[in-house]
Design brief:
The protein has 10 helices and 10 strands. By secondary structure, the chain is α/β, with parallel strands linked by helices. The strands form 2 sheets. Strands 6-2-1-7-8-10-9 form a 7-stranded mixed sheet. A hairpin with a 7-residue loop joins strand 4 and strand 5. Helix 2 packs across helix 4 and helix 5 crosses helix 6. Bound molecules: S-adenosylmethionine. S-adenosylmethionine binds next to loops. The site of S-adenosylmethionine has 23 residues, from loops.
């Protein structure tokens, strides 16, 4: 059987997707990404048995529940993530949580583009390990908010079930402490223990829409800013900084930077920033 052909996206069609992605999600699909967009949309067009791009696009923009739009955006972004990805941030979190935050009565952390959950669960494991080694006042009042725009990845994240190969690099001791190994039909899968899962609350939040009116000691905004154009990045960072308590930390991905974005944070180390503490009167 021949592999299905990827339809060629005409320039005008690409502009339409690109404008929609920008308007609804702040996504930046610059010229030159036509091939990638065409390849990603091809599957949707085939699966939905649409006659071509125009028909698919009409359906997406008219479908009232917004599900089709969500599915489109799912295919345009990448959800790549991993447990303990870019581990320096988790070492830093552990160090600060058991240092300057040790006597805080509570700790609130936000993983603001959490994909399928590996990042917030890594935060939970890091802090559980930290509190088991160093008594910390926040240990009884620890909450992790994990959000993403994609309902598909959030569903996977909520389930907290992962294929064994996603845990390959995790030391055996950590795996035993925090995960349950599946048997029988669940062979080859692991499930996070309730002690980890219950620390994380998942919500669907689009970063270009109004953000929660809550404050956090640490915000992880990693490997997502790169999808947005400069003005959207600027607006998102400004609003996320409002959600950060004074003295709180802000993380971006290690291949990202706040360079070129106006903000009130101070640089701490690569991909790590801090919000100034309020001066005493
Ligand atoms: C590459 S993943 C990053 C996952 C994780 N933060 C990490 O670094 O491993 C990017 C995530 O950003 C999400 N995303 C894209 N646009 C978004 C938006 N406007 N609001 C919230 N999340 C968004 C995608 O759905 C995807 O799950």
């Amino acid at each position: 059987m021949n592999a299905p052909e990827t339809p060629v996206l005409k320039a005008a069609e690409f502009r339409k997707v690109s404008a929609l992605a920008r308007e609804k999600f702040g996504l930046n699909l610059p010229e030159g990404k036509e091939g990638l967009v065409a390849a990603r949309l091809a599957k949707r067009i085939r699966e939905g048995q649409f006659r071509g791009f125009e028909e698919y696009f009409r359906y997406v923009t008219a479908e009232p529940s917004g599900e089709a739009l969500m599915a489109l955006i799912d295919s345009l972004t990448t959800n790549h993530t991993a447990f303990f990805r870019e581990p320096a941030h988790f070492d830093f979190l552990r160090e600060r949580a058991t240092g300057e935050f040790r006597d805080s009565p509570s700790l609130r952390i936000w993983s603001a583009a959490c994909s399928s959950g590996e990042e917030p669960y890594t935060i939970a494991m890091t802090l559980l390990e930290a509190a088991s080694q160093t008594p910390c006042r926040w240990a009884d009042d620890l909450h992790i908010l994990a959000s993403d725009i994609s309902t598909r990845v959030l569903e996977k994240a909520r389930a907290g079930v992962y294929e064994a190969e996603r845990l390959d690099k995790m030391p055996e001791e950590r795996r035993r402490a925090f995960l349950l190994k599946g048997n029988g039909a669940r062979q080859g899968w692991f499930k996070l223990k309730p002690a980890v899962r219950n620390l994380v609350q998942f919500e669907r939040i689009n970063l270009i829409e109004p953000l929660p009116r809550r404050t956090f000691s640490f915000i992880f905004c990693r490997n997502v800013l790169m999808y947005f154009d400069h003005s959207t990045q600027q607006a998102i960072v400004a609003r996320l900084v409002e959600c950060l308590e004074p003295g709180g930390y802000f993380f971006v991905g290690h291949s990202e930077t706040l360079h070129g974005i106006e903000h009130s944070l101070s640089y701490v180390r690569p991909a790590t920033y801090v919000k100034a503490r309020r001066r005493r009167a």
